[in-house]
Design brief:
64% of the residues lie in helices and 0% in strands. Helix 1 packs antiparallel against helix 2.
């Protein structure tokens, strides 16, 4: 069940983080080191959001 508490702007929900990853990778055919670092950062944000949502649900 979703929380009624607002999510701080620097902490997106898992769905928002997933959407950011999808938007970032859409249509890419090559990846620079900077691109891969950003993808890794976005994945970390997504993983953190998932963990927070699981903890809230418990």
């Amino acid at each position: 069940m979703p929380s009624d508490r607002p999510t701080p702007p620097d902490r997106p929900t898992a769905a928002q983080a997933n959407a950011a990853i999808r938007a970032f990778v859409a249509g890419r055919t090559s990846w620079s080191a900077v691109d891969l670092a950003e993808l890794d950062r976005l994945r970390e944000v997504w993983r953190r959001a998932l963990c927070e949502e699981v903890v809230e649900a418990a």
